[in-house]
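From the shared-data thread, chain only:
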Amino acid sequence: MSPPSQSHTVRPRCPRCGRPVELCLCHLLPNLTPRTEILVIQHPDERRHALNTARLLVAGLSNAHLLIAEQLPPDWVERIADRGWRTELLFPGPQVPLLTAAGQGDRPRRLVLLDGTWRKARKLLYLNPLLQQLSQVALPEGLTSRYRLRKAPATGALSTIEAGTMALQMIEPETDFADLLRPFDALIDGQIRAMGEDIYTRNYRRNEL
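Structure, as tokens:
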């Protein structure tokens, strides 16, 4: 008699940071409350990505939201279209103006980020005409990613958590948002340890030189 087949074991995950419970990063997450609301729209294909930095960004902010969808649900269409908010889309492009600090007395501010590969991010933009109508803003050129396990598709390409942290720092320069990157750095360090120093050096470290 053949032994019973074993079903695939699903590793339990932390509901806050989304990491496997034994690799939870919540102890490194800050609890910051910027004046700016952050909305990250994540392509569904990115949900189970091992390096899900969008979830870490949102988890470190008390007024941030992670929306996993290709198309905006009706309630978010209504919220984003509300003219009582100054809602901007952080997305680079030709002649897109730089992000600026918040002015005193402005409407409450919301910044929308798209999480996915460039192709998937462009698809999110294409499928949601409302996003195309938003004021588009960009980060400065020449920024360097700390994402040592990814070969950037273009110069200045940042992970979602890096882009969100930099954006908040520019909008609210009086606040230090550096703690948002603590779990990100720990995540990268853990991935490097898991793969081994030899493999990391052979495949990635030469890109830092």
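The chain has a mean pLDDT of 86.
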